[in-house]
Specification:
This protein has 289 residues and is of the alpha+beta class. It has two domains: 108 residues, no CATH class; 132 residues, Alpha-Beta Complex (Nucleoside Triphosphate Pyrophosphohydrolase). It has seven helices and 15 strands. Strands 10, 11, 12, 13, 14 and 15 form a six-stranded mixed beta sheet that branches. The chain has a four-stranded mixed beta sheet with strand order 4-1-6-5, sandwiched between helices. Pfam families: NUDIX, NUDIX-like, Zn_ribbon_NUD. Its cofactor is Zn(2+); Mg(2+). GO terms for molecular function: metal ion binding; NADH pyrophosphatase activity.
């Protein structure tokens, strides 16, 4: 199985620098420090699929810096503008073309940067008292100056799964998908719910299928804006689909041969892109793993 997209990061996250304000200040002044090139939320990618970097002096005058980690001991940063900027959740066709070009480890660095910058832009004010917050821990947290509440980047867990019955897997499509694309079903975990329970609930809600045993396959950070995709396969009790038209436009059962053909670009449906964990899930299932 190929590693899921946005995994395999190459940077040392350097947690020790997050707790040492003097060391963080020294990293900002290090001549080897580099700043990730971002046009809004879109990375600069060269012909070899590598991210673009520049000097910290090239950041906007009002920017604050988040320490992404160390590359062979050399600090790497992302900039968070204090004012303005694009809508945090915006995803353009250009961005998805760039994701197709990025090397795996580079994609992991971009995912970290995008999620952190997005989070900072959304959390200027304290959720407890409403006062302005300030960056601390090298950009891996914000602290309220009024009530001293500390806030940290959140990750939202999402289950993404295939229902399996009699050697076939269930795939579905949403109206927003490109023409012909089908993928695994997915949904957010709810409070007080286990991964297995979320898998069974989502399949029941979206396709009307009761499921039993659930097995974990893999996970992936998904930086739009900050989710953890948890890929699973669940055993369905039968194959009678009752579609929830509010969630899905269509759903169908596919064989392993169908999936292998789709992953090769020749099948009865358009497969998810390689950087999506749905691609990894289909690849793993079609191989019988």
């Amino acid at each position: 199985m190929a590693a899921p997209g946005f995994t395999g990061g190459l940077l040392d996250r350097a947690d020790h620098l997050r707790h040492d304000a003097d060391a963080f200040t020294a990293a900002l002044g290090n001549w080897q420090s580099r700043l990730l090139k971002l046009d809004g939320f879109e990375p600069e990618v060269d012909d070899n699929g590598r991210l673009g970097w520049t000097m910290l002096a090239d950041a906007p005058d009002d920017a604050e810096f988040v320490l992404l980690g160390l590359d062979g001991g050399r600090p790497r940063f992302a900039a968070v503008p204090l004012a303005g900027g694009p809508a945090p959740s915006f995803r353009s066709p250009t961005l998805f073309r760039l994701l197709d070009q990025l090397q795996p480890g580079e994609a992991a660095t971009f995912a970290t940067a995008r999620s952190l910058v997005d989070w900072h832009l959304r959390h200027r004010f304290c959720a407890q008292c409403g006062a302005p917050t300030a960056m601390f821990r090298a950009g891996w947290g914000r602290k309220c100056g009024a009530c001293n509440a500390e806030h940290f980047p959140r990750v939202d867990p999402v289950v993404i799964m295939l229902a399996e019955h009699d050697g076939r897997a269930l795939v579905g499509r949403q109206p927003a998908f490109p023409k012909g694309r089908y993928s695994a079903l997915a949904g957010f975990l709810e409070p007080g719910e286990s991964i297995e329970e979320a898998v069974r609930r989502e399949i029941s809600e979206e396709a009307g299928l009761p499921t039993g045993a659930v097995r974990y396959v893999a996970s992936q950070p998904w930086p739009f804006p900050a989710q953890l995709m948890i890929a699973c396969v669940a055993e369905a009790a039968h194959d009678r689909i009752t579609l929830d038209a509010n969630e899905l436009e269509d759903a169908m059962w596919v064989t392993r041969d169908d999936v292998r053909a789709a992953l090769a670009g020749e099948g009865p449906f358009l497969a998810p892109p390689p950087y999506a964990i749905a691609h990894t899930l289909l690849e793993t299932w079609s191989a019988g793993e």
